[in-house]
Amino acid sequence: MAKYTATIDEDTRQRIHALPRGVHFSAFMRKAITVFVDELEKNPDLKPENFIITHTARKDTSDRERK
Q1: Residue 36, class by beta-carbon neighbours within 10 Å (0-12 exposed, 13-18 middle, 19+ buried)?
Q2: CB 27: neighbour CB atoms within 10 A?
């Protein structure tokens, strides 16, 4: 599996590190990337300014491990 990286500015990096311990940043990013790729597959002409990240009240448990 290939690993892709993208640069982020120092301010964003510091804000990520300052998140509370209970926030699993990688799970959020995995979900966001999945949605992003799905949208690009539908319409490859999209640009970054076409994407808006919003919060919904629905709790998505599809990324959690089953006990």
Answers
A1: middle
A2: 12
